[in-house]
Design a protein that fits this description.
single chain, 236 residues, mainly alpha, Endonuclease Iii, domain 2, Endonuclease III, domain 1, 2 domains, 0% strand, disordered C terminus
Length: 236
């Protein structure tokens, strides 16, 4: 069971939960390493079905060889695949990266647009990736929703459903725009470290506010079966 009662908490309750979690992750931000919007866009595309730590091992050499969109747009696919193979799905990612870079050069003079609509028109870029880049590198509030955000917010009772776009809308409605990006980072870190698929509820600072924890702790525990064994008395 990964959900609470299914009833959405109020805006006030949602803000209280995020405030509680923020005490556990006061400096929450993306764990991807980058120096500009282009680098973060590349790193976020690579992070699909990978880990931030794994991506961070690849990007220093990648950015040294392809420092901007113009350089990446002319990359040899075979060479690029070899550089990113450890991140998984390297064939699809290499095509997406080159296509994205070519679109930046052709349509945006090599610059990353600070606009959701234009970002999501780029090859390999969906709402989550666009929100990561907007919120962290371009100063435009966004709420990235990944599997961690879906799981954690659902358990807490501050979102409902498994549609990332709908969950994004629910959370954006409940929270002030100024804290959208950091709230997402907080939920992501909590999902990685505490509220895992098998949650470590005893480590959670927000468990007293959590629907999942309330339902689980209210459920009757199963008592172990006791088997009475016959003890044979030794013959005298």
């Amino acid at each position: 069971m990964d959900k609470g009662t299914g009833a959405l908490k109020s805006r006030a309750a949602t803000r209280k939960i995020i405030a509680a979690l923020s005490t556990q992750y006061p400096d929450a931000t993306t764990e991807l390493h980058y120096r500009n919007a282009f680098q973060l866009l590349v790193a976020t595309i690579l992070s699909a079905q990978s880990t931030d730590a794994g991506v961070n091992q690849v990007t220093p050499a990648l950015f040294a060889r392809y420092p901007d969109a113009r350089a990446l747009s002319g990359a040899d696919l075979g060479d690029l695949q070899q550089m990113i193979v450890s991140t998984g799905f390297f064939r699809q990612k290499s095509k997406a990266l080159v296509g994205m870079a070519q679109a930046l050069v052709d349509e945006h003079n090599g610059e990353v647009p600070a606009n959701m609509e234009q970002l999501t028109e780029l090859p390999g870029v969906g709402r989550k990736t666009a929100n990561v880049v907007l919120g962290h590198a371009l100063g435009v509030p966004g709420f990235p929703v990944d599997r961690h955000v879906l799981r954690v917010s659902g358990r807490l009772g501050i979102s409902s459903g498994d549609d990332p776009v709908k969950v994004e809308a629910q959370l954006c409605t409940a929270l002030p725009k100024a804290i959208w990006t950091q709230s997402s980072d907080t939920l992501i870190l909590h999902g990685r470290r505490v509220c895992r698929p098998k949650p470590l509820c005893e480590r959670c600072v927000a468990r007293s506010l959590c629907e999942y924890y309330r339902v689980v702790t209210a459920a009757p525990s199963r008592q172990p079966r006791h088997v009475t064994r016959r003890v044979r008395t030794p013959r005298r």
